Amino acid sequence: MAKRNKKTDKHQSRLNHRQMEITGTFYRKSNGKNSFAPDEGEEKAVFIAERNSAHAMNKDRVRIALYAKRQDFSAEGKVIEILERANDTFVGTLEVTKRYAFLVTENRTLANDIFIPRDKLKGGKTGDKAVVKVVEW
């Protein structure tokens, strides 16, 4: 097992070059307090800040790097690779502009709206409900 992360001062830590990496499932929360559940036999749940989520979506299978654990704080990590997407189809409301369109999903746990090329709208207009399959991440 690789070394854990080094502390740089009382309230900060940084990743080691030989960081501890684990795989598991990412859980996105609408308040930005995302979590990670390691595969069985691994460590306890890990906090993943929004800035460290690498655009992972709810229930994606990911690999994370663990930060050094600070005293009296829960474990924290950073998504370094998305191994498998949990979903590629989303439901929401279309917003169409002159140059582009996007889908505002009903599920508020998606970090970003989904961009849709105008030539793929198939007659959709602003306010229409739509089902979109993501073909490129």
From TrEMBL:
It is an enzyme of class 3 (hydrolase). Residues 102-137 form the RNase II/RNase R cold shock domain. This is Ribonuclease R. GO terms for molecular function: exoribonuclease II activity. InterPro entries: CSD2, NA-bd_OB-fold, RNase_B_OB_dom. The keyword Transmembrane helix does not apply. Its EC number is 3.1.13.1. Residues 38-82 form the Ribonuclease B N-terminal OB domain.
